[in-house]
Design a protein that fits this description.
It contains 5 helices and no strands. By secondary structure, it is mainly α.
Length: about 140
């Protein structure tokens, strides 16, 4: 269904798609590593600070923050798992990139981040532009 929506948008130039497909595996690897490390730190900090947040009456902030950090961790792990598949231009790698983006969207919705949703829309656009490169 999403592929149909994004197919109606203007296509990126072919040379841009070629560049994106070449650097996508490396971006997935780099941002996957950074995301895993950052998410683990965030989960640890939020878990440690949760009792203090609850005492201050921030019940939603404590649970939403931990859930958002866990979802970000899932998205980052999916990026790492996508590296070999995207490097070999397999559709399984593209699928992992897609599900990583879905997890990121859910994470940003939990965090109530409008900028994250806009970024996800752009991310999905780019993903569907390069899907034909993966078999």
């Amino acid at each position: 269904m999403m592929e149909e929506w994004y197919s109606k948008l203007p296509a990126l130039p072919r040379n841009w798609k070629d560049v994106i497909v070449q650097i996508a595996p490396w971006l997935a690897l780099i941002f996957g590593i950074i995301g895993v490390l950052g998410s683990l730190v965030a989960v640890g900090l939020l878990t440690f600070l949760a009792p203090f947040i609850l005492i201050g009456g921030g019940i939603g902030a404590a649970s939403g923050g931990v859930i958002g950090a866990i979802l970000a961790l899932v998205a980052s792990v999916l990026l790492l798992l996508a590296f070999p598949g995207t490097r070999a231009r397999k559709i399984s790698g593209w699928n992992l990139l897609f599900w990583s983006e879905v997890a990121s969207v859910v994470s940003t919705i939990v965090a109530l981040s409008v900028g994250g949703v806009v970024g996800a829309l752009i991310g999905f656009y780019i993903l569907f532009q390069i899907k034909s490169y993966y078999k």
